[in-house]
Amino acid sequence: MHRKEDARFIRGHGNYVDDITLSGMLHGAVLRSPFAHAKITSIDTTSAEAHPKVRAVITGETLAGLGLAWMPTLSHDVQAVLATDKVRFQGQEVAFVIAEDRYSARDALELIDVDYEPLPPVVDARKALDADAPVIRDDLEGRTDNHIFDWESGDRERTDEVFAAADVVAEQDMLYPRVHPAPMETCGAIADMDPITGKLTVWTTTQAPHAHRTIYALVAGLPEHKIRVVSPDIGGGFGNKVGIYPGYVCAVVGSIVTGKPVKWVEDRSENLMSTSFARDYHMHGEIASTSDGKILGIRVRVLADHGAFNGTAQPTKFPAGFFGVFTGSYDIEAAHCSVTGVYTNKAPGGVAYACSFRITEAVYLVERMVDVLAYDLGMDPAELRMRNLLRPEQFPYHSKTGWEYDSGDYPRTLRLALEKAGYDELRSEQAQRRELNASGRSKDLMGIGVAFFTEAVGAGPRKHMDILGLGMADGAELRVHPTGKAVLRLSCQSQGQGHETTFAQIVAEELGISPDDIDVVHGDTDQTPFGLGTYGSRSTPVSGAATAVVARRVRERARIVASAMLEVNPVDLEWEKGRWFVKGDPEAGKSIQDIAMAAHSSLELPEGVEGHLDAACVYNPPNLTYPFGAYLCVVDVDAETGQVKVRRFVAVDDCGVRINPMIVEGQVHGGLADGVGMALMQVMAFDEDGNHLGGSFMDYLLPTSMECPSWELGETCTPSPHHPIGAKGIGESATVGSPAAVVNAVLDALKPYGVRHADMPLTPAAVWCAVQGSPLRT
Ligand code: MCN
Ligand code: CUM
């Protein structure tokens, strides 16, 4: 089925925040810090206020007067809305100008005079805990260092024992660099405080409208029914639109101060420099095995760079997200990891870019470590994986770090990927190529990279998972109108994933109503039930389950109505898609449309049965879902220029039952392109003063069709046993699994040069330096 929403998108009729214009609307712009770390000694806004088109200038001091200078982050920290004391990263919000038009607001920024006293910045996370490191968060009481948290998982002692007894131990330091999802649409908001009704409406780019509303309620002290958050069409979120940004809060305050609606939409550089980044994990991995390649244990130490405020959005009990699944897809005896989070003078964030709550980092780590081990053992990396993958009979599998993998048949999926790629032929082609290289007849290298991943998505069971105290369940409401058309209301919010299509398909499958007759309403807190929103590929696992459950409840209500219509006992009715009929008499039946009309009619219903045809549900998932996949990448590398070309990419994904195969493939295509981008091109770089070096698309590179091969997809289907329709999430799988496949492929190409590891991004310079055996200078 084609996507219902594309009819408006491909005609240019999407309705994004910046398309909305309200009567009398003013425009805001943010003044940002040029320094990574500096004391603010004074801010003079006189000239800006004198600008003929400026209506107001808001500073940290104005906000402090309202008790709004600081706001809570999603990780139990606070973040400056507008700086009052210091600036803590380049691009931090310092003042907000409200003017009659966007250009005047921007012009007036230049009229604001701020005196800064620069302070030494902490740029390298590895130096953040040094005794002489400047303390970034001196706003927090009693704070004498840049330490945020320590978190560990697994059994340290048991792991140490396993390592002590192992034949082989391989160690490797690796960095998953700071990257940014860079969605097509940047972030923005329009705030409209109605002075008569006291109702605040915020149109905003949010992946989690209900969570945002509750946070506004808590921060502003307004009751929730006086706040309406609307998330219209969104041009990509990728985790960038989970958090609340200072610009949103400034727009709200601006509307209160001026009595007019205020629009604030950031530009591309602001998006890249100040909004939620991803990764920035410095990892030290160790892997232990027998000499013939049975993996015994994995041990990891991580230093996590969280920037100037701990603004990552992770479930409360999981400060390092779901990094705990770093044991990957393998049957091992023991594992342990410890993660230390630190502050640095960089933008806050940390949940973004299809990360599945840090499973991107975990999968990259374990898949690189398996290749490092293969290198040391002189074993084929695909064979090493096959030897250690969990076996189908081990499911449900209880991992050594406490996760319950719901279902899987890993060897089948890996075998399929190897067959599709023609693995043996590729290896023989490579052997021939290496002969040519060795005899100096060619400098063209070829590499084959394999990665196998398992994700844990669909957060999550309320008793284990909450964000800022809000449990991670989601509501759904389904109403069938008298004519048999339906409306489904969801708490999650699509940013391009196609929910208006796929969620209609779930109802269609359960009730036999055409998906064209089912309207999916989302992204408006006044119109939808409460729930935590779309991220961590949770919509299908949680809201998708809620949708199947409400549809089934409606079906059961329909059965009672049908029994009254047919004057039979409900137990004597049988369901076939779209109708209830009398067992043994298929002719005597009523379609769901007939039943819907009857449910709204004067038909007498049994005692205690209400009329109409609707249902609601709050779905509290019993477990996460565990999608998985096997990826294989083939690259050609020019040893003389360091240029990498991705020749082929085979991706076999298993996300259980696929609701819409085309949408699933689209999700995978997008994620694979992300992986090529991260592996070869992307990094948010900083100089030693903390200047951001990637504030535009000239420096922060996005992959295009030129860098991507024609993806070769395959699938296996292992339904989730606890999900009502057996579906698992897919939205982040390819971003999680693909970087390791590409990096493994490049390093496989460089094997003859004795290169075992090199960090992303594997730019031509990085590859060339690795070949030369010289350190990369950035
Ligand atoms: N789907 C399906 N069958 C399945 C699983 C999913 O047909 N077995 C469909 C779903 O119904 C949905 C889509 O695939 O239409 C993605 O579903 P899901 O895996 O549940 O992920 P979410 O809908 O929760 O989307 C979130 C996920 C995340 S966290 C990031 S980051 C990301 C991603 O989606 N951001 C995206 N993919 C994106 N795609 C687009 N176009 N834009 C983004 O911002
Ligand atoms: Cu981690 S990016 Mo998605 O979960 O929105």
Key words describing this protein structure:
binds CU(I)-S-MO(VI)(=O)OH cluster, Aldehyde Oxidoreductase, domain 4, alpha+beta, seven-stranded mixed β-sheet, AldOxase/xan_DH_MoCoBD2, 18 helices, Aerobic carbon-monoxide dehydrogenase large subunit, 778 residues, five-stranded mixed β-sheet, molybdenum, binds pterin cytosine dinucleotide, Ald_Oxase/xanthine_DH-like, Aldehyde Oxidoreductase, domain 3
Please state the oligomeric state of the protein chains shown.
Answer: single chain
CATH T-level fold name of the largest domain: Aldehyde Oxidoreductase, domain 4
Unreliable parts = none
So what's the CATH class of the largest domain? Answer: Alpha Beta
Radius of gyration: 28 Å
- Spatial separation of the terminal alpha carbons: 47 Å
Major sheet size, sense and barrel closure: 7 strands, mixed
Your description of this structure?
Residues 11-120 form the Aldehyde oxidase/xanthine dehydrogenase a/b hammerhead domain. InterPro entries: Ald_Oxase/Xan_DH_a/b (IPR000674), Ald_Oxase/Xan_DH_a/b_sf (IPR036856), Ald_Oxase/xanthine_DH-like (IPR016208), AldOxase/xan_DH_MoCoBD1 (IPR008274), AldOxase/xan_DH_MoCoBD2 (IPR046867), AldOxase/xan_DH_Mopterin-bd_sf (IPR037165), CO_Mo_DH_lsu (IPR012780). GO terms for molecular function: carbon-monoxide oxygenase activity. The protein is an alpha+beta fold and 778 residues long. It has 3 domains: 18-119 and 186-234 and 241-274, Aldehyde oxidase/xanthine dehydrogenase, a/b hammerhead (Aldehyde Oxidoreductase, domain 3); 356-458 and 624-772, Aldehyde oxidase/xanthine dehydrogenase, molybdopterin binding domain (Aldehyde Oxidoreductase, domain 4), CATH 3.30.365.10; 473-619, 2-Layer Sandwich (Aldehyde Oxidoreductase, domain 4). Helix content is 28%, strand content 25%. The chain contains 18 helices and 32 strands. It has a 7-stranded mixed sheet with strand order 3-7-1-14-11-12-13, with helices on both faces. Strand 31, helix 16 and strand 32 form a beta-alpha-beta unit. The longest helix has 28 residues, at 539-566. The protein is globular and about 85 Å long. The two termini are 47 Å apart. The structure holds pterin cytosine dinucleotide and CU(I)-S-MO(VI)(=O)OH cluster. Residues 207, 237-239, 242, 351-355, 535-536, 732 line the site of CU(I)-S-MO(VI)(=O)OH cluster.
